[in-house]
Amino acid sequence: MLLLDEDKLERRTLARNELLFRQGDKVQAIYFIEEGRLRLDRRTFDGRSLVFGTNSTGEFFVEAALFAEIFHCDAVATEPSRVRVYPKTLMDHLSERAATARGKETATTPARRRNPSQGTSG
């Protein structure tokens, strides 16, 4: 079992219109929105802003960034907000541990239990 003490994770409080990160910043974390709302914006070459989406209280934010080196847009609080910070290094470590645990579980689970469609005879 993979345990994570979320009470020990860093929290960030953001004022309305405050940036959480900028386009081009190195990805160092993903976030869970405890309160508020955040928007993803990207600036075009001619200075216009394109909104890619918004996330609200109770949602993870930018989890796809775990597979990137840099952020490809800005994250802006559209109202006073608080996020829980999940460092990328921690998430990578938990992912590796989960994969190892799944491998051990598969190796020790009888074939009959892994594939119930084959029935119980044997």
Features:
122 residues, alpha+beta, Jelly Rolls, 4-stranded antiparallel β-sheet, 2 helices, 8 strands, 20% helix, globular, disordered C terminus
Task: Please explain how this structure is put together.
This protein is 20% helix and 34% strand. With 122 residues, the chain is α+β, with helices and mostly antiparallel strands. It has a single domain (9-108), classed as Jelly Rolls (Sandwich). A hairpin with a 5-residue loop joins strand 4 (37-43) and strand 5. It is globular and about 50 Å long.
Helix content: 10-25%
CATH superfamily: Jelly Rolls
Work out the number of β strands: 8
How large is the share of residues in beta strands?
25-35%
- At CATH's second level, what is the architecture? Sandwich
- How many DSSP helices? 2
What structural class is derived from the secondary structure elements? Answer: alpha+beta
Strand order of the largest sheet: 1-8-3-6
What can be said about the biggest beta sheet? 4 strands, antiparallel
Order of helices and strands: EEEEEEEEHH
- Unreliable stretches (pLDDT < 50, length at least 5) are 109-122
What is the CATH topology descriptor?
A: Jelly Rolls
What is the residue-averaged pLDDT? 80
Computed Rg: 20 Å
